[in-house]
Design brief:
With 210 residues, the chain is an alpha/beta fold. The chain contains six helices and eleven strands. An eight-stranded mixed β-sheet has the order 3-2-1-4-5-6-7-11, with helices on both faces. The longest helix is centred in the C-terminal third of the chain and has 24 residues. Bound molecules: glycinamide ribonucleotide. The site of glycinamide ribonucleotide has 15 residues, from helix 1, strand 5 and helix 6. GO terms for molecular function: phosphoribosylglycinamide formyltransferase activity.
């Protein structure tokens, strides 16, 4: 089975979706470690409850981002993942660490990339009067949230939405989006070749809509 390491900073509902799909027999992966930059993140407890080794490392102990990432990714590399999944990992990753894992690291982001990279995506979509919003799964490259997109899920923006309501509607679609994207990679159907996503060895002309 594909060996998967998960990086996460918070609640961990996307990790839980991977665990649940694995337990249901819908996802042939081995989750070999969960890594967090926050010792108090609920995702760590979720991991341990699922029998997954969970590790946290505090950035405060490091003078520079590159030094923190060297230590974090040494721990990640130690579990020998085929794939690294950023699932609510809220810290920038230094380009050296990204480059060492190019084509083997994906991220789920709560917007229809290339719209709204970065933070506060739901509030920014609302402020712009967007009528559609969603989430994307993409390969990670050094530029923030700019890597080639594998798949997206779209939701409508409704007239009475606030950021909390909109983020709930998006999150409800994120879990299947992430599970199905990881399944495509585990099945060897999706990969990244020279910065381009391929489906069944052919270039993907547009993100999958899941
Ligand atoms: C998810 O909405 C994910 O898309 C977002 O954080 C949330 C994590 O939820 N990620 C980012 O904003 C990355 N910049 P979870 O901890 O319940 O999986």
């Amino acid at each position: 089975a594909l060996r998967v390491a998960v990086l996460a900073s918070g609640r961990g509902s996307n990790l839980q979706a991977l665990v649940d799909a694995r337990d249901a027999g819908d996802l042939a992966i081995d989750i070999v470690g969960v890594f967090s930059d926050r010792a108090e993140a609920p995702v760590l407890e979720r991991a341990r409850r699922a029998g997954i080794r969970a590790t946290s490392l505090a950035p405060a102990g490091f003078a520079r981002r590159a030094a923190f990432d060297a230590a974090l990714f040494a721990a990640v590399d130690h579990v020998q993942p085929h794939l690294i999944v950023c699932a609510g990992y809220m810290r920038l990753i230094s380009s050296a660490a990204v480059r060492r894992h190019l084509g083997r690291m994906i991220n789920i982001h709560p917007s229809l990339l290339p719209q709204y990279p970065g933070l506060d995506t739901h509030a920014r979509a609302l402020a712009d009067g967007a009528t559609e919003h969603g989430a994307s799964v993409h390969f990670v490259i050094p530029a923030l949230d700019a890597g080639p997109v594998i798949a997206q899920a779209r939701v409508p923006v409704l007239p009475d939405d606030d950021a909390a309501a909109l983020s709930q509607r998006v999150l409800a679609r994120e879990h299947a989006l992430l599970v199905r994207s990881v399944a495509l990679i585990a099945d060897g159907r999706i990969d990244c070749d020279g910065g381009h996503v391929r489906l069944d060895r052919s270039p993907l002309s547009a993100p999958l809509q899941l």
